[in-house]
Amino acid sequence: MKPSGYEEVPVEESLGRVLVTDIVSNTNIPDQNRAVFDGYAIQSSNTINASLAAPVMLKVIGATFPDQNPSKIHASQTVFAACGAPLPNNADAVVKIENIRLHEDRIEVRSPVSPWENVALTGEDVKKGCLLMKSGCVIRPQDVGLLAGVGTESVKVIRKPRVCIISVGNELVKLNKKGAPGVVNNYALIISNLVSEWGGIPQLFGIVPDDLQFIKNAISAAARKADIVTTIAGCSVGPKDLVPDAIAALTGKGLVFHGVGLSPGKVMGVGIVKDTPVIMLPGHIVSAYAGFYFLVAPLIARYLGLGDQALSLLVSARLDCDIEAKSTATFLRLRLTYSNGEFKAEPIHGGASALTTIANSNGYIIVQEKKVLKKGTLVNVILFDRYELANTLRELTEGF
Amino acid sequence: MKPSGYEEVPVEESLGRVLVTDIVSNTNIPDQNRAVFDGYAIQSSNTINASLAAPVMLKVIGATFPDQNPSKIHASQTVFAACGAPLPNNADAVVKIENIRLHEDRIEVRSPVSPWENVALTGEDVKKGCLLMKSGCVIRPQDVGLLAGVGTESVKVIRKPRVCIISVGNELVKLNKKGAPGVVNNYALIISNLVSEWGGIPQLFGIVPDDLQFIKNAISAAARKADIVTTIAGCSVGPKDLVPDAIAALTGKGLVFHGVGLSPGKVMGVGIVKDTPVIMLPGHIVSAYAGFYFLVAPLIARYLGLGDQALSLLVSARLDCDIEAKSTATFLRLRLTYSNGEFKAEPIHGGASALTTIANSNGYIIVQEKKVLKKGTLVNVILFDRYELANTLRELTEGF
Q: Which of A66, B52, B142, B327 could form a disulfide with A358 if both were Cys (CB 3.0 to 4.6 A apart)?
């Protein structure tokens, strides 16, 4: 696999990106002691004996605002300080304007004021030199604000991996060719949307016919410009399944593996061409889905330095019938419904090429080979993506 | 509130959008009976008695491909059918090429073939006239594929609400004004990122000084062009808090409400200007966060026709200490850690203006007024956003 690339992005555009460096604050927040409210900056020690009967009188010698440098007061003096203004030298508190009485050029303080009252202290929120964020963290909305707050203008983040998607098959026709005979190439569009969701940049290569040389050329070109290549279809064991041959011819060393003990999805596989992983996704959509979650999503996460399941959402649910896996493990699609305080998981059966079985379900589990799961078993269902929450489960999120 | 607007978007760009109309399929998938593998199209009834000892011989009269119309065979004939090719008339099965022996212009079938073997039947996945998706659904990756598969080129979806963000305060300075005295306007950037995450289009209005006329002009201009307006700061009860006055002056009817029983966040409020909800978010960031989750996020969801908690992720966690709310309900920030098979929730205390308390936590709960929650209580922590999963919790998703 190619090493992860890096890029510098403006802080304003860094949401969801993965930091490459530690971020150490080179400033304090607040940068200096500042007034938290509009008021009068004073020396608190002068007010210890202040009372309604014996108010302390202080002379107003000026006013200070947020965009100014600190002024200075003496014991019997005060300065009007607008919210956010730097505290004048020698002052250690601010009396709110609603708590004083103003007489021309003097104010009357009628109760004791504590040291640092209504003052935001230097570095109270962020201390200069402190570690703000660690390398490897995903930048959240609050982090964007924090980075901008300490004056960071741009951050070094892991480049999003480019995932090139090659559709293989003579039978395929382009989308939007209304009435054109053949099979619409809609699976590439699904994989492309999944790639985006997992943090990659999808690149749609287009359709390549079932021809060894064409497939070799396509994979070779894609491997040059992408970080990860996925092919869809042409990776089974029939005479027209030429993707494994193409990869083997390009590498001279064969595949890393071809075939897994999972159904649907059995014929998925991986080769390495020019340091670029080439993921062979099967041509049936359910198998391709399984291949995406097992091979593509983890590779994207690895490239980004995240855990394999970085964006996976798991929901605990109770099987509503017995399940038995055959001689291979099963990629079982499940529809979730909520009742009586818990999720119920209903298996959605159907052929490996039935896209509606994915559309009618919300997530999946892997049932190990020959394993029997009894009705009522609690399973962790892996949601297909975050949109499952907003959709079928939208009134049900309380159950999480 | 203004009615939700609609727009037509290409299917390829419809991920995450909310459908306005039901989608009924006007085609079958497959559109006609098609070969599932490369093979020979036959009449299965001819092969009932086929065996190794007495193979059935069929004459090859042609070949058919996915982009052709169905050909036709008679009982003793066969046609080579490429994967995806329409089944010839009179044929009801396909024998895989690996299961026949080819002799010049004839094939030898050596075992019985079942009716419809290796054939994808018309409408097997999607039936013409069936309801594919309901109005109000969020479009997921698999739905994009399904819509494209039935030939839909564009869909009518709810327009994303435009949320205009006005920052109020003399003390604020623009981002990237390094060394400029004052307080950096980073809170607007946070709210803008949260708006995007919740499905709105943020519009940064910029900074407006603490001046009634300026604030009135800003809100009035924003209400003309946005679906939702939020102001940040200037909504407390001090002499410089002019946003409530500005809204009242614009409406002539005062506010819908001003002040809630939640701390931090007490001074949030809502007015309606030109049919546009104007949300007053408090100037302290923790209070503004509370205001976002309580007023802005639900309004965006409502505009999109989704449940209030459409994207909220809840994690069940055990409090690691006693919690006691004061006389108002508390917006309690919590850091989650995982050990011994469950999440532990640790309260992060700090002032309402401490952005680091948000950065150091993963979500929040509301503790009702005067309520005491004992150490060990299980609470549903609402994650700030989905990035909390990839980040602090990235190795921990098994706990969901």
A: B142
